[in-house]
Amino acid sequence: MPIYSFIRPLLALILAPLLLGVVNKTKAFFAGRVGQPLLQPYYDISRLLRKGAVYSKTTSWVFRAAPVVCLAAVLIALLMVPLGGRAPLAFGGDIILLAYLLGLVRFLIVIGALDTGSSFEGMGASREVQFSAMAEPALLLGLAALIRKTGCWSLSDIFQGLTFHGLLHIGPAVLLVAGALLVVFLAENARIPVDDPNTHLELTMIHEVMVLDNSGPDFAFVLYAASLKLWVLGALLVNILLPVRTGAAWADTAAAMGGLVVLAVITGVIESTMARMRLVRVPHLLVAAGVLSTLALVLVLR
């Protein structure tokens, strides 16, 4: 295993919160404001790590363990997603384990919210489970289309098999998968139009309401895990739409990370130009993403 394959996850550990800063800076630009510093997510995580945690008497060990195990699951998922080269943890079927790890992260956040006994957090957990159940088919069917086209069961092999020349050959299917994964990317990371990470209205919150009782280091773990999840799902999109294969590891990695920054800017543009959808309309968007993935699978099965 080349040593530089471990450098990419280390860069992700360092740079993942920066993507949130890019999103916030983009939104501030469109609003005509200076906005938060680009490194504000780092400041927030550092400040929370220096604080103490407060626990309700109604919570159990489940609530305390959820943020730590959630972060651990995202770290393992990070090792399986290639970015500018092969992933350190690549094997046949890792694509299935990745889906299960993302599901585990969601499950831990949900049971941590339910363990508090709060009606608001229970409401957010219910919405999270409902919407994620509709987003998962879009993700799995989209990845299944890529598996069928490349004949590989490993994420590293799948993305190594994608090239700009290959995109011209299977362009429509790839574009459909990319569109579906963009919706999944926004939904899984609680971004507009599915959710608003900056809202403070409990009746309209989904993800943020589930972590209201987290504080101190626990909340820092939640925020850091969220930034890493943004990186992981963003890497899937970048690998599909920007398959740079120069043969030089540093050039491929730089191009992929530049693609992540562009994706963060696009996310900020979407959040600045679109309003959050009504909750009853969100399932329509997620079902549409599933339809796009299904059409892509049909195209590659012909």
Index terms:
single chain; 302 residues; mainly alpha; 12 helices; 71% helix; globular
The helix content is over 70%
Report strand %: under 5%
**Count, helices:** 12
Total count of strands: 0
Which class best fits the helix and strand makeup?
mainly alpha
Low-confidence stretches: none
Shape, please? globular
Write a structural description.
There is one protein chain. The chain is mainly α and 302 residues long. The chain has one domain. The chain is built from 12 helices and no strands. α1 packs parallel to α11, α3 packs antiparallel against α4 and α8 packs antiparallel against α12.
Quick structural gist:
The protein is mainly α and about 300 residues long. It has helices spanning about 5-30, 40-50, 60-80, 95-115, 120-150, 155-160, 165-170, 170-190, 205-210, 215-240, 250-275, 280-300.
Topology, please?
Blueprint: H1 7-31, H2 40-49, H3 61-80, H4 94-115, H5 119-150, H6 155-160, H7 164-169, H8 171-188, H9 207-210, H10 216-241, H11 249-273, H12 282-301
Helix pairs in contact: 1-10, 1-11, 2-10, 3-4, 3-10, 4-5, 5-8, 5-12, 8-10, 8-12, 10-11
